[in-house]
Model the fold of this input.
Amino acid sequence: MILDSKIPDGPIAEKWGKHKFNLKLVNPANKRKYEIIVVGTGLAGASAAASLAELGYKVKAFCFQDSPRRAHSIAAQGGINAAKNYRNDGDSVYRLFYDTVKGGDYRAREANVYRLAEVSRNIIDQCVAQGVPFAREYGGYLDNRSFGGSQVSRTFYARGQTGQQLLLGAYSALSRQIAEGNVTMFTRSEMLDLVMVDGVAQGIVTRNLVTGAIESHAAHAVLLCTGGYGNVFYLSTNAQGSNVTAAWRAHKKGALFANPCFTQIHPTCIPVSGDHQSKLTLMSESLRNDGRVWVPKNEGDKRSPELIPEEERDYFLERKYPSFGNLVPRDVASRNAKEMCDANKGVGASGLAVYLDFSDSVKRNGEPWVKEKYGNLFDMYAQITGENPYKSPMRIYPAVHYTMGGLWVDYNLMTTIKGLYALGECNFSDHGANRLGASALMQGLADGYFVIPYTVGDYLATIGPKPINASHPAFKQAEEDAKAYVNKLLSINGNQTVTHYHRELGKIIWEYCGMARSSEGLNKAKGMIQSLKADFWSNVKVLGEGEELNQSLEKAGRVADFIELGELMIDDALARNESCGGHFRVEYQTEEGEALRNDDDYAYVAAWEFKGDGQAEQLHKEKLVFENVKLTQRSYK
Amino acid sequence: MSGNMNLTLKVWRQKDGKSQGKIVDYQVKGISPDMSFLEMFDVLNEDLIKKGETPISFDHDCREGICGMCSMHINGRPHGPKTGITTCQLHMRSFKDGDTIVVEPWRASAFPVVKDLVVDRSAFDRIIQAGGYISVNTGEAPDANAIPIPKKYADEAFDAATCIGCGACVAACKNASAMLFVSAKVSQLALLPQGDAERKQRVESMVDQMNEEGFGACTNTGACSAECPKEISQVNIARLNREYISAKLTSDNI
Ligand SMILES: Cc1cc2nc3c(=O)[nH]c(=O)nc-3n(C[C@H](O)[C@H](O)[C@H](O)COP(=O)(O)OP(=O)(O)OC[C@H]3O[C@@H](n4cnc5c(N)ncnc54)[C@H](O)[C@@H]3O)c2cc1C
Ligand code: SF4
Ligand code: FES
Done:
């Protein structure tokens, strides 16, 4: 299989404009003859569904929550990047492009990233027009802040609830289209399979989560906007329901899965407090703008923080990276925190934490100023830990947060299956081996508002508006398969709960495919996952029936898919004999302990092809060509 | 790390929307004060599954107080005893060893029970569909800084916009009124210049839809705002009333 990324020719700044001109258009009168399925209504899905419906297409949208407003995007805190250069501080489309390629440790596609930077400006305009209440200055103009991995202030925010406000904006646009009858919304519906006819995506099979009914839906194109797979780690900052199921089932039908081992561990999360824990809570990295990260200089120093004098504190990020200081990219910040804890300098009861200290900022700007900027994050910390962060420094530790890997897509966001697209966190496209803060919201909305409306039109114009329905036997077959799958899960009736398997899987992936990976550990983990999988399918206990609301059953299907994905992550991490971004192979590091890339052999996207249950997946490589950005050892010193 | 709190739970169990429900008693042991309320439910459900009993269904997703999905009525209060937080943000340190805790679903005819503690809140979506938006198509927007908005209004709009659509206001209200929820969206958009063009029509349509869904009338008891996890202010209800009256007085829909 040859992976054709379909990157247009020409200078980087002209590619998207030229491409848009070359894409075929659908005659306005014909648009309503096309049906499009959008699975997922987070930022990517809601923006895509609304924009496509505005254009006149007939859209069916799906989400597993009880309302599209609850997608996991709602939880994003810190902000969204855009190259507006309202600050006159030297930002530009080119700089955002450059920062993103560099931040991704040179494992992203230049053309996609440039387009992302280009349309970032329209996103802010669109959101403001929808009534998104971004933070403003006294003059009434939009405020910005800076985020890790950049030296300009280009992040737009709505207090600590940026994702919520952006999603509610997209949700309102979607709601308007639902009211107008252009979008049919299916809530509490989970996609269980992709249906293909003659090798082309033609619809999906879903399970109605209230009645358990297995249903078919046909369309001319299917868009997966189903978010990331961070929950493969069990403990993550993702919502409980976030899953890989839709993407994974599409993968098993032939969509290649790219860079699965590229996962992001976020440096500023609230540390684990016990084994009852069901999720980890992120605190926006915007905190690193004004908070200072430190540990005691002396090993095993267990004094409470206020008793440790200034000269016995190690502000390790400021010391090691004087020019970026606390604002180094996430992978660098996380790895350094882990190093400190490994060196017995970690703080708190578990020793698995470092301090994030606002005392200087409170002294400099006053408590009200800090409250205005970060109040809700401080409240959240206090609520979870029972401690007052205005009085003593917060304790933070890295946690899984985002997955750069995902379904492989070309420049048009089409997967390797014709007619199947992937948008938002569900695809692999723009962040390389590490995502910069405030760039996921940007990407989800770029894909949904400003890319897919053009590219999907080109495909639809090519195939023509032939009527479509779910009567083809392929739908019947997919329904039968889905029912058989549900029955299989219910019939095992073993003696371990689904959560048990999820937790065990998480432990393996975190330990061996987390912040530091080695070939020895990965090989060990592969065996462990295989036995976990075998045990799951012979010993899991799922109660109840298929034809009812059954949350254990929902979870069982998701965990089964995570187990399979986990094994592919291990394979991917093993095959990439270099370190880059969030993928840190201990065998490959510089003398200073930084990630050591191998551009000669590994400047490619690893795209994996499913070959059948129990078979090894096949690796395909899309070579990354850098024509604009010079590959260098990333330095934030 | 397990803890040492032992509790009695009295939980509403209902097989589905058509069946009768009832309160069932459960004992939970070894609860840690650091657990969240939902993690305590996880422990209970794990025990039930191991015993072969059907686990309790409840809605939840983000578990950090922002998605609005969790919705437990705990000891007679939506989202439990503490103010300004959701059920998922409630921690067991807010309870004592030996406590008895009664857990029920939201009660309102506009929010029918789906199963156990899960209710159907799609009425809220339909209210938003009736007009809780600004009609702007993708691509039509002018530059984001073209219209400055005084910080005061932007901040007030933001405060109203923080509503998470959880429905606790309805559950708290003896009339099961949705006024706080509706007023939050009406206020947000009324405070922003972008929302001005559709201002009259919006408030009329949203209020009409609210009435159609079977929510009760607002008698200004203030219970909604007191129980709202986002502390949405009653000022918004006053604003909604003003918006509604002035829209009606000059309505084009007569
Ligand atoms: C705590 C937190 C904070 C963050 N903060 C920031 C930030 O400040 N800035 C930033 O840029 N990024 C941030 N991110 C990342 C960003 O929020 C996400 O990457 C982004 O919102 C993902 O959007 P999405 O539309 O791709 O997917 P999601 O919002 O996850 O939506 C997925 C959708 O798919 C649906 N779905 C999933 N599976 C199925 C299925 N099988 N069947 C049917 N429907 C399905 C869900 O119902 C949902 O509607 C943060 C992430 C986290 C976890
Ligand atoms: S107003 Fe408050 S209680 Fe009501 S839905 Fe919104 S957040 Fe929930
Ligand atoms: S689970 Fe999201 S608000 Fe409680």
Notes: The two ends of chain B are 65 Å apart (CA to CA).
